[in-house]
Each structure stands twice: as C-alpha cells, then as structure tokens.
Amino acid sequence: MSDAVGSPVEFVKPDYWPEACRHLARKDRVLKRLIPQFGDACLQSRGDAFTTLARSIVGQQISVKAAQSVWDRFARLPRRMTPANVLKLKVDDMRQAGLSARKIEYLVDLALHFDSGAIHANAWPGMDDEAIIAELVGIRGIGRWTAEMFLIFHMMRPNVLPLDDAGLITGISRNYFSGDPVSRSEAREVAAAWQPYCSVATWYIWRSLDPLPVY
User: Fold this and answer.
1) Fold classification of 49-153 (topology level)
2) DSSP 9-51
3) Which of 143, 124, 208 is closest to 170 using CA atoms?
4) DSSP 125
5) Which helix (H) or strand (E) holds 178?
6) Do domains 17-44+160-209 and 49-153 have the same CATH topology?
7) How far apart, in whole angstroms, are the C-alpha atoms of residue 213 and residue 195?
8) Any idea what the Cα angle at residue 163 is, between residues 158 and 164, rounded to 5°?
9) Could you tell me the sign of the dihedral formed by the alpha carbons of 135, 140, 144, 150, in that order?
C-alpha cells in the first residue's frame, strides 16, 4: 500500500494483541463471541506523528471520501510532509487544495508546535496517556477525542477508552444493552472488565458495527 504521495506505507502491529485477545475473551462474554469473527485482523499503525495528526485535522467534519480527496491534493503541495515544509506553503495554494481558512490555521499551528519543539514527540513513548493528551489538546483543532484516536491508532497504546466516541457508545448499546441508550457511566462499567486492554476491546466493538478494518 502507498500513502497519498506515493511512498510505501509500512504497517506496524502491536505485540500485545494476542495476549489482549485471550484476556478479553476470558473476561467478557461479548468479546469472547466477537474476537473469533475477525480472524488475524488487528490494529495497525502507519505514518509518522505529524502526518497522522495533519490527516485528522483535514478530515474533521467532512466525509471519509471528501477527506481523502482533500488530503490527496494537500499532500502534493510540500515536497515532503514535514512541519517545516508545511510552514513554507502559500495560503492560497492550501485553499485551492480544498482546505477551509480554519483548517489552514489549525495545520499551521500544528506545524509550528512540531517545528518549534513546543511539543515533545520524541519523549512520548516514555510518557503516560494523559500527559500526551495534555500536550496534544494544546494544539488548535485537536480535542480530547482526536488525541485519544492518535493514542490508539498511531501510538497503539493498549488501554485507551474513548468515551466521547459515538461509535463506541453505539457498539456498547447494541452489544450489551439490546440497543437501549447508554450513559457514559454505564459504558465505563462495561469497560471495567476490559482493563488493561480497553483499546483492543474498543477496536472489536467498532468492528461489530462496521466489519471493514479500522485504521
């Protein structure tokens, strides 16, 4: 597979996945049923941190198809997708790629944070989840949900529970409450059995709603 600018994309799989699946199948009757339905499929990470976050900003509040189209046009503008190169881009060129004025502001702020060292991406592997979230939400256009998706899909942290995610809440409703509405506290109670692999359980709950792979 290739990314938007044609270079090979290397997928990385988490080494904890097999143990997480065994643990969740023992602890949770729903996951014991769901996990075997998806074979060897699992969470995979691709790309670097800056590109991953830039894509998340581009994709905000538009369809997946539209987001891919805008990203493809935007990704052709810099020679390489780096913070320094994004800061050199002309606003008019970014607008012509389909980006709104607000998203351009967000992308520039993201690039500034990376380029200036205001965030400590190299230190993230040794930081806990909440510390990384605190750094990320200091960037314009990145809220807690985006930060949690980054932790799951890019850093592949095993124990993230994104209670602001509509898909997770819907999946818990359908799989555990026969479709009845679910509060955050009820969702948290269900997820107590998922510790310390909430990210893995969330991935399977998402898959129960949409069988296509979630990246």
Assistant:
1) Endonuclease III; domain 1 (1.10.340)
2) ---B--TTHHHHHHHHHHH-HHHHHHGGGGTT----B-S-HHH
3) 208
4) G
5) none
6) no
7) 23
8) 120
9) negative
Top CATH class of 17-44+160-209 equals: mainly alpha
The answer to whether the bond into 125 is cis (omega within 30° of 0) is no
Helix, strand, coil percentages, rounded to 5, for the chain:
60, 0, 40
What pLDDT score was predicted for residue 210?
Answer: 77
**Burial (CB count <10 Å: 0-12, 13-18, 19+), residue 111:** buried
Q: Does the pLDDT value for residue 214 go beyond 80? A: no
pTM: 0.85
* Pairwise CA distance, residues 159 & 200, whole Å: 8
The domain segmentation of the chain, as residue ranges, is 17-44+160-209, 49-153
CB 110 within 8 A of CB 57: yes
Which residue type, as a one-letter code, is found at position 63?
Answer: S
Q: Is 117 exposed, middle or buried (0-12, 13-18, 19+ CB in 10 A)?
A: exposed
Q: Which two tokens stand for residue 29?
A: 């009757």
pLDDT in tens, 173-202: 999 999 999 999 999 999 999 999 999 999
For the chain, the straight-line distance linking the first and the last C-alpha, in angstroms and rounded, comes to 13
- Residue type for 143, please? G
Is residue 62's pLDDT more than 50?
yes
